[in-house]
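Ticket #4471: structure output looks truncated?

Reporter: J.K.
Steps to reproduce: submitted the chain below (537 residues) through the standard prediction queue, then opened the result file.
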Amino acid sequence: MAENTIDASLLAHMFLTGAQNLDAKKDWINELNVFPVPDGDTGTNMSLTFTNGISEVRKSGSDSLPVVAKTLSRGLLMGARGNSGVILSQIFRGFYQAVKEKEEISVAEFAEALANGSRLAYKAVMRPVEGTILTVIREACEAGTAYAEENPDSEFQPYMHCVCEAADASLQRTPELLPVLKEAHVVDSGGSGLLAVLDGFRAYLDGTPIQEGAVQEVKAEEKNEKASGYRTEYILQLSRQGKLSFKEERFRRQLEQLANKITVIASEDEVRLRVNTMTPGEILLLGQRYGTFSKVQIENIQDDLKPSIIEEAEKPVEEKEYGIIAVAAGDGLAKLFKDYRCDVVVSGGQTMNPSTQDFIDAIAGIHARHIFILPNNSNIIMAAKQAAHVTKDKDIIVIETKSILQGISSCIVFNPDDTPEANKDNMLDAVAHVKSGSVTYAIKDTTVDGNEIHAGDYMSILEHDIIHTDHDAVGAAKYLIDAMCDDDSEIITLIRGKDATEEQCSELEQYIAENYEVDVDVQNGEQPVYSFFIGVE
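Returned output as attached by the reporter:
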């Protein structure tokens, strides 16, 4: 495709083909996970992130290049999952910022926009690590910028070939920069996802776009059929302008694109709504155009015990001082966090990282001045911080918890009578004093830190290090307990997963009682993938 400038239509098609290529390769990217645990999800995270951006571009139907770039950027921002997904969103946020108001861009302008994305991605990471997606985008941009300067009249095809070749070469060098990749005989998974996107751009320009797979526009009726994630209800007090602009029929049509089981009761001064939706944040944003909320309620669709605000009007909810959001997978863990004062438990963790939008939806459902977020996983922290950054009307404090045990300890020390600063300090102190361990099984043969690991082995993981393997989950847990406990240990928390039995848990309790003078707190977390979470304080 001989082009030396790009307009909105061409850019949108490049974005779409990039998303399709990423989606097609996501399973292979997942398998590049260094740790042989059954939760490698980089490819899935990046694909879901980019697909959300493409969905927003399609909804906009715009033929303006800045709008296409901005819409993709916003969609990626809200749909970002996992650290690689957040970094991907920052790359295209920087791309949009450089595009500004240009309706057509040249090769040199495209190269500068991509380079700006690289710079923004580096800034988004507190401690950038080379040998990752950051290295791949930087080195690809450096090669692309040099090519554009040397070939000022170049068309896009050869430029994009140069960028992709440089990205691939950079990706192949990642094991030389990160020893853990070299030991596992893999390249960086995030960089592989980025290369898939860039290769998609190149494929479209070459006239060989990737065939559309999972990245397809969802029909409205199919989307509505599946819109069962959250029951979202609110009472909206119409503003003066809202009374003039609100049209119930148009409002219903807009809702039908986002939800099902729609109930709307409109009067001259207020609107009462109840819907089932996968995106409660969008439902709230739709209502905010017309006024202010006097009542908001968002709940898991499976919970049918709470009364409907449509059926029974309540007084406006007084804003409270504090709210807490935690991330966890497993009904037992969700109940445990709610018992420890959490207002919302976002479903997710190792096997499915929640998106920025998931956190924004959770924030919207809490009527509090100060909201603490506990990500409970190192790969979720960036999405939580991104949600905090875009939330302007509430004080959002992200406690960088990297494990379920750190999250639980943070909740235990939280004091609703303390100041936000005091609570933050106490929660961070609790995080620093808990040792976190987990037991799960290996899904492939590999070598990590010099240790040979075989598929089916149970692994004792202390913080982020695999310290032992065993043919038995209980044996792995006993080894982990011995490694974690010392003379100063006072409490052991044992959280049983979905695949562990009561008998195994009882055996571990007895082992602890026979070997350590500590208090033992046993919980049934019902978490997937991990047989046991173990905390020592």
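Triage note (M.O.): checked the attachment and the full token line is present. Confidence is low (pLDDT under 50) at residues 213-227, 303-313.
Status: closed, working as intended.
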